[in-house]
Amino acid sequence: MRRGHLTQRVRSLVPYIVRLGFAGALVAACQAPDEYFWGPDAGGGVVPPVAGRGGPVTGTGGSATGTGGLPPTGLGGTTGVAGSIGTAGTTGTGGSPAGTGGTTGAAGNVGPTGAGGSAAGRGGTTGNAGTTGTAGRGGTTGNAGTTGTAGGTGTVLFSDDFENETVDATNPAAPSGWSRSGGSSSDWHIATDGTKVLQQDVKLSTTVGIFAATGASGWSGAVSASARVKMIEAGSSNQVALLCVRYNDNSNRYCGALVPGGVQILTVVGGTAGGSNVFSVSGVTPGTFYDLRISVDASNALTVFLNGTQRGTYMPASMTSGTVAVGTASMTAAFDNVTVTRP
User: Fold this and answer.
1) What are the boundaries of each domain within the chain?
2) pLDDT of residue 182
């Protein structure tokens, strides 16, 4: 058999060989020594050559590719078909899995939170709102103050500011005539002290000297007498500058008195003297004009005011009427703006 026929035959067997895993044997058969081939050169007839022995089988399970046939390749033989790569051996089972990791220790229990201090004391209960107080009643409207030196408001019954008099005249004539009682005619005169005034600046005798508006008929009922009065010089005792709201004579009179340190109410009824204590007023001294007022009401009660402020009251023995007068005792003094009003 010729080499070409042999090769063809071998090729037709390859699938069977591969299927059996003997690819290496075929490769070896193709590379057998020349002695296995009988050709014309050997002088014999045509004899079918013996197939070359295949190489050993590839190691099971992943040994290296099977060793090819022994050299040298048979003369003239076709290069054997490469054996199929042996099926890779099964990968050996790995060692036991890595040891199981140690169980993570359970976290330690959190210690209990220490008990807090006692809760803060509860706030006190809000007190109920106080009841809104009833609005206070408005105060009673005060009595109208005296108008300047003219005394309280009301009907003017008499007024003399001495401006129509002659300076140094000893007996005022206007408006209704004045009459002196006690002392001498030279004790009183019209003087200038900012304005014209009736002034007694001669004697400090303790005897009461009076100048009364005897030309007026006199008034009964509730009336007020007011005047600006200034003490000039005080005597040794019982010093007074008098303003009388009711005057009949020296034995019957209702008078208010400006005295050092305050005011007083002095009365004489039927020759019997009476009167209040001194109502002290700070700062009352000689040398300053003060507004003096004395009032008698319908019940005969007397009230004295200084600089528009009520200072005290007194209830005298009854005397129903009289005129206005000014006077002194143990004192020199000046008088101006003498006025009588009825409420």
Assistant:
1) 1-89, 155-342
2) 84
Domain 155-342, classified CATH 2.60.120.260, yes or no:
no
Is the model more confident about 56 or about 115?
56
Predicted pLDDT at 184:
83
pLDDT tens string 188-209: 999 999 999 999 998 898 999 9
Q: Determine phi and psi for 143, rounding to 5 degrees.
A: -65, 145
* pTM exceeds 0.90 for this model: no
